[in-house]
Amino acid sequence: MAQMTLTRTDFRVEPGKQEIIIKSAYDAPRERVFRAFTDRKLVPKYWGPSSLTTRVDKMEVRRGGEWRFVQEDALGKQYAFRGVYHDVLPLERLVYTFEWEEMPGHVILETVTFKDVDGKTEVTDQLVFQSVEDRDGMYKMGMEQGTRDSHERFAKLVERH
User: Fold this and answer.
1) Residues 101, 81: contact at Cβ < 8 Å?
2) What pLDDT is recorded for position 144?
3) 36 in helix, strand or coil?
4) Tens digits of per-residue pLDDT, 92-110?
5) Which of 27, 23, 28 is nearest to 9 (CA)?
6) Do residues 78 and 101 lie in contact, with contact meaning Cβ atoms separated by under 8 Å?
7) Nearest to residue 9, comparing CAs of 161, 152, 157?
8) Domain range annotation of the chain
9) In the CATH scheme, what is the homologous superfamily, with its name and number, of domain 4-46+89-160?
10) How far, CA to CA in Å, does 42 sit from each of 1, 24, 49, 56, 161?
11) Which residues of the chain, if any, have pLDDT below 70?
């Protein structure tokens, strides 16, 4: 899996590693970008593929706080994701776990950092999987396309508000 680049999003998926690193740049202030990551009213406007609707079931953005998002397709099938916040440093970093409820026990540790770069906000998202097999499986299930879709909608949201 080679590195791929789109206008706003760069994926780094190196063979044999347990991580994926996603870098994005948004033409918006860091405060607005961080708020979109942590505001339960904004998350459903961009989270996940556009073919699904997203509901925030729980979102306690604090150390030890839990989150749970439920997505639904046009036929009513639901997909739930959950995790726990391990670190919240406003405007700088979020660290949390990510688990798809249909595959319990396959937990990802995600670290998202926010940085001002040339008048834009650079977001680096490091996802560390429990194994290379877990990472490759998630990636092959369409993770990159879903993430790109989500990032495009996220960019439109933060750049206009």
Assistant:
1) yes
2) 87
3) helix
4) 999 999 999 998 999 999 9
5) 23
6) no
7) 152
8) 4-46+89-160
9) START domain (3.30.530.20)
10) 32, 18, 15, 10, 11
11) 1-7, 160-161
